[in-house]
Amino acid sequence: MTTKQPIALAVPRAADQLFTLRNANDMRLTISERGAALVSWWAPDRYGKVADVLLGYRDADGYADNSAYFGAIIGRWANRIAQGRFMLDGAQVQAAVNDRGNHLHGGDAGFHKARWTLSASDAGVSLRLVSPDGDGGFPGKLDVQVHYRLDDEGRLTIDFEAVADAPTPVNLTAHPYFNLNGGSADVGDHMLQIDADFYLETDPGGIPVGVAAVGGTPFDFRQPAAIGPRLGWPDAQIRLAGGFDHCYCVKPHAMGRTGPLREVARVYDPGSGRRLQVSTTEPGLQFYSGNSLAGVQGRAGRPYARHDGFCLEAHAYPDQLNGQCASAVILRPGQVYRQTTVYRLSLQS
Q1: Active site: which residues (predicted)?
Q2: 315 in catalytic set
C-alpha cells in the first residue's frame, strides 16, 4: 500500500514532497520529489529492531545541493565521460565538466538536484522529469519517468523509461548509499559478492583505461568477502581511488547493452542479519566504498566518516560514449530507453 507522508524535514524553503511505501513486513521506504531520491529505508534486523539502512541528509537543504548524490536518480549520464566530450553523428558534443576535468553524474546541475513531478497509487510511486535541449550540454529534450515499487518480499523495483526528440546519450542509475547495520559502524564487516570475472581499471580521474581480470586482486568478490580488509590491500587501483570506485562487467556477453534482469550482487551484514540482493538489466555495476564520505553532514547530526556506506550502481560502462558500443547508449527519436534495477532487502537465516 502507498501512503502520502507529511514532510518530516525542517526547512526554510518550500518543502519537498515525500511519499512512503510500506509493505506487510514492517518496511518503510521514503522517496522525495527532489532528485527522485530514496531518502530512508527502514527495515528490521534479526532481532526485530528497525533501523534506516540508507545514508542521507538531516534536512531538505542537503538534498537541494546533494553533492554526495545520496539516494538520487542520476542523469543524463551516470558515472564519467572523459573531458565531457564525445562524438555524436559526426559532431563533437561538450557536456558539463565537474570532476577533475571530466563529466560526472550529469554535472553539477544534474537530475539529482531537480524537482521531479511525483504521483502515487497503490502500485507504487512514479516520478517524471522533462530535461530540456542543452541541459548539462546534452542535445535534445528528454522525457524521463522512474517508477518505484516495494513488495512484501522486500523487493524495491526501479523501472526507468525515457524518450527523446533528438539523438542523445542516456545512461540512468539510482544512487542509494547502504549501511546494513543501520549506521552503528562502518561497512567494513559487510560480506560482498559480485558475479563478475572482469572489472574496468581507471586512470587518476576515474576514466576506464582497460578491462582487467579480478582473479588474484582485491576486486575478486566472486566468493563472499568482507569489504574492510580489501581496502588495505597493496593494490595500485585501490590506492588510486582511495578504495573501491570501479565498474564491474556483470554482463560482458551483452557487449555494453542491456539484457534480461538477473541477480548480480549480494551483501550480508553479519551483525544485523540483513541481506541485500541486487538485480539489473545493465551491463555494468559500479561498486563505490564511500571513499569521500568523510565530513559529509548526515541526518544523525554528525558528519559521516570514510566508508560509512557503500553504493552498487547499475548502469552502462563509464565513458562508453568514447569506447566500444557507443551506439548502444544513444537514444533516438521513436525509441524508448528502458532499464530495471531491483534491490531486495531481507534477513539471512
Answers
A1: 175 (proton donor), 313 (proton acceptor)
A2: no
Q: Which residues are annotated as part of the binding site?
A: 79-80, 175-177, 245
Span 71-84, pLDDT tens digits: 999 999 999 999 99
Which residue among the candidates 112, 190, 307, 313 is catalytic per the annotation? Answer: 313
- What's this model's pTM, rounded to 2 decimal places? 0.94
The answer to whether residues 165 and 140 touch, using CB atoms and an 8 Å cutoff, is yes
* Residues that constitute the known binding site for beta-D-galactose: 79-80, 175-177, 245
Average pLDDT over residues 298-327: 94
Q: In percent, how much of the chain has pLDDT > 90?
A: 89
User: What torsion do the CA atoms of 77, 110, 245, 342 make, to the nearest 10 degrees?
Assistant: -70
Amino acid present at 276 = L
Catalytic site includes residue 201: no
Please state which CATH class domain 18-347 belongs to: mainly beta
- H runs (alpha helix) in 102-258: 227-230, 236-241
- Domain extents in the chain: 18-347
